[in-house]
Input
Amino acid sequence: MPSVNPSVRLLLLLSLVFSGGCASIQPVELESEYTAPPAAAPLWDTIVAAAPTDWHALLNDGPTALDWRLRAIDSANESITFQTFLWYFDTAGRMVLDHLVRAADRGVNVRILIDDFLMVEDRLLLALAAHPNIEYRVFNPYKRRVSSVATRQLLNVAEFKRLDHRMHNKAMVVDNQVAIIGGRNVADEYFGLDEDSNFRDMELIFGGTAVRQISEAFDTYWNNRWAFPIETISHETASAEELAEARRITDEATHIHTEESPELRLEKWLSVIAGSDTGQAILYTDDPPEGNPRNREEFPVQVANELIALFDAAEFEIVIVSAYLIPTPELEGAVKRALDRGVRVRILTNSINSNNHLTAHSVYRNHIGTLIESGAEMHEVRIDAKDRARYMLTPVEQKNLGLHAKALVIDDDKVFVGSVNLDPRSLKMNTEMGFLVVSRPFNETVRSAFEGDFSTENAWKLELQDNGEIFWVSDDETLTSQPAHSFMQRIEDWFFAHALPEDEL
Output
């Protein structure tokens, strides 16, 4: 998801005009800490023997991804590093919390780094950080802190330019032996557990030298001057009672994930390795700011530049899957260059009613005509996708589907999966990360995983008519206007399309 709701950002920009100055928070200088070398333990010895080369596998659906996240935490012997943009303490979030604390209770060193934009559970997190084996840091924090996210943004409006740059990275490394990265935040809707709406998302699980690449990237952020120990910024009082209450979830949610014996856990690891891919994996990651995030020379564009290079190197096909699609001039130029040299470009993004940020969709719609006229094939996720049960727990009759995955399939031998949306916020303002995998078999695996998402049973196919109008075509109906919830949503969409600054989205 975008790191700042664009409508809130518009309010902040207006408030900035009328606000006075306030003292800025100053970056911290701490002694550097680094991820320990790969742990030696019977479990890892067996896994390494079974997979002597680097390996990676796809985590395609939410429930499976949560299983592997918890299984990996339960496998830890020495260290866990956990980096995320968003962490809600709903069912999935509390299960992750409980398993992390259980690992710390076993003596595992746990380091948690979270972006500050949507972090509101200071009391709970202070209690979590009070554990002798847990360290908790907050990236690019707000100075004035209250429980309401919107109020906190208004109170810190004089620092809008610094706070508008967020850490959107998502990664978890266990014992420096295995890692998970991709698009998922930690909340129910990313794992198919929400009662109303869930996301189609994607992650990769890794073993081998790629894990060390992720650890080094995490350490760079952990040791950055803008990563603050939570106890240095929070004005709350730690609540051990709240932490204990949150941890009760494991015994209540056995239908989601059950305790595993060491033998069964090893069996699961060997099974995923047996079905994994061993192609080359290259980490793309943005540099965190050293001076001040607001400084233009500090803007994180390293991943964006790598992706533009991928587009320019494509020979015959580019498949784009992006939850939020607002092409920058550089990206739009790369897409046009690809189309001009005969490369097929297929795009899947959210429709107006599957997008959880209407403002993001509103600005995207300004690019639809240009993309289709240039030759791109456009598809938008249906909120009522007929195969949505693949990504969420049943029953699904009343549940909606949205897209949160961020991936590229290039030609027949490359795949990129990460945290990067193809919008100005991801490409220019937030820090991001992801992996390029060079492998024909894995390219086919990911291509097959997405193929159903492009079908008209699950996505609208946008068709440009001779008179310039766009039709939305599914397997059972054709619409001459966007598949909106209501007429009012269309009015709001039109207003935002003309009112919002595109570079801020």
Notes: Residues 6-18+30-274 form a domain with the Endonuclease; Chain A fold (CATH 3.30.870.10).
